Amino acid sequence: MNVQISDVSQSNGKGGLPKIDITTHSSSAEIYLHGAHVTKFQKTGEPPVLFMSQSSRFQSGSPIRGGIPVIFPWFGAREGHPAHGFARLQDWELTGGSDVSNSSVAVRFALPPSDATKEFPAFAAEYFVTVSDSLKCELRITNKSQQNFTFEDCLHTYFQVGDINQISVTGLKGAAYLDQMENFARKTEANDQIKINCETDRIYLDTESTVEILDQKLKRRIRIAKSGSRSTVLWNPWIEKSKRMPDFGDDEFHRMVCVESCNAAENKRTLAPGETSSLKIDLSTAPL
Ligand code: TA6
Question: Is 255 helix (H, G, I), strand (E, B) or coil?
Fold first, then answer.
């Protein structure tokens, strides 16, 4: 990694995996090359924005549990393959970066070809992360083949909350969703403020809305703005699924919620030869 940017240091993190640490005058972030995985974003003087499991694995072939998993080229389960695609399991290359200003640092990653990528039409996958008083992430996929390329992509963000029982999620009222807890039954969101009090696993469809997490305990709102994303997934594993996840603490569901910005299920994407897609999120906080 020969990228030299002020405020960016490179080191070996957990499990000896290479990572970069970024500091700005108002925030700090941490990104592992494994999966180009943002594992930390925190504004100075505030609790972390991203949740990280204390039981996460940091090893080749395993996903990191928490932060922002980069999901591509499929979402969810796939017969004979790891769930959520291979992008989060591969080592990405740090290909560039710059001090956008004294309060913002941008870095860029690329997914190198591998045995896993060869099963798919030729593509280029690039990931851009900009750290400032907000966190902006962009996943760009370019179809380098001579055929259409259909895939799903998702920034599967884990957010830290003070207490799952004291949050609500807004911005999805009226959206259709597939309820994975009822065999993907199709429903419509009736609530302006969604409360979570059981295992929740929903793929909201055809929505480009900004979502907010209103956290009464931390007295904070987290705003998830997005573009190039037609689906939003809302997930909390609650009690029983938490116990079934070896890389997730039994009681960690109290302090996290996933709001994932995706193109999944019937919102999957198709790129014509030479076309490029862009999935962007902009994460920010404000006092409640
Ligand atoms: O995004 C929700 C979901 O698909 C859930 O069904 C749950 O499986 C979660 O992703 C985590 O998946 P993972 O493969 O990271 O354990």
Answer: helix
Instruction: Indicate if ligand 1 lies below 6 Å from the C-beta of 151.
Output: no
Question: How far is Cα 214 from Cα 176, in angstroms, rounded to an integer?
Answer: 22
Closest atom of ligand 1 relative to the 63 alpha carbon: 15
Is 43 a pocket residue for ligand 1 (Cβ < 6 Å)?
no
Closest approach atom of ligand 1 to CA 247: 16
For the chain, the farthest-separated pair of C-alpha atoms sits apart, in whole angstroms, at 52
For residue range 276-287, list pLDDT tens digits in order.
999 999 999 999
Q: In the beta sheet, which residues pair with residue 143?
A: 123
Q: Of ligand 1's atoms, which has the minimum distance to the CA of residue 82?
A: 14
Return d(Cα 213, Cα 168) in angstroms, integer: 6
pTM of the model: 0.97
Q: Which of 26, 25, 46, 29 has the alpha carbon at shortest distance from 37?
A: 29
In angstroms, the CA 262 to CA 208 distance is 10
Q: CB of 82 closer than 6 A to ligand 1?
A: no
pLDDT in tens, 160-194: 999 999 999 999 999 999 999 999 999 999 999 99
Whether residue 17 contacts residue 92, with contact meaning beta carbons closer than 8 Å, is answered with no
Sorted by where each starts, the structural domains of the chain and their CATH numbers stand as: 8-287 (2.70.98.10)
Q: Map residue 122 onto helix, strand or coil.
A: coil
Catalytic residues: 156, 260
Long-range CB contacts for residues 6-15, cutoff 8 Å, separation at least 24: 6/99, 7/99, 7/105, 8/97, 8/105, 8/107, 10/94, 13/39, 13/58, 14/56, 14/58, 15/57, 15/58, 15/59
pLDDT band, very low/low/confident/very high, at 1 (cuts 50, 70, 90): very low
Residue 63 Cβ contacting ligand 1 at under 6 Å? yes
